[in-house]
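JOB MANIFEST
job_type = single_chain_structure
chain_count = 1
residues = 183
[input]
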Amino acid sequence: MPQRTLTIVCASVVSVLVVVGVAIAGGAASGQQVRVAQGRFSHHRWALKVQGRHDRRCYELWLRGKSVADAVGTCRPDKHRPPLWSRLVGITDDSSASVELNVTRTRVRAMRLRVGHPNSGRPPRWMPVHTRRISRSDARKAKIRRNFRFAVLHSRGRLCVKRVILFDRNGDRIDDRRVPCEG
């Protein structure tokens, strides 16, 4: 009887250690969720959080107003070369405010965007935007590569990017493209 009890105890200890080891290994593949940017405009707040999960880079974009809060997220492969420019996610708060996340390669330092406002009657305008890179410590916490730059656009009303011109650190034009409006 004591030998059988000892066998049961040892088996349960081994199974607990296996479960704990799997939990630790699973947690090691995911980084912390790190807030890398935030701001205010027109009685609204926005925030961008990133997190690495199993060789993927996940983004979460928040928009909070007086009465409404919303968040949207997406995950992309944490590959070596992200696209030259990409519109990843965007949120509109009852058509009173919008935020949008744009991701570029590290080579892109600035953008000029032709921004429209659907259903508002306002004419499209050119908007200069500087891209940002996350810090080394934030990348380490989130467990992601620093091989991208980002910009969070915000606007009163609905936001619609129609054209993108990309520039490098010297101000030389890298790319000029028309993009479909998703606003």
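[summary]
The chain has two domains: 1-30, 32-178.
Residues 2-28 form the longest helix (27 residues).
exit_status = 0
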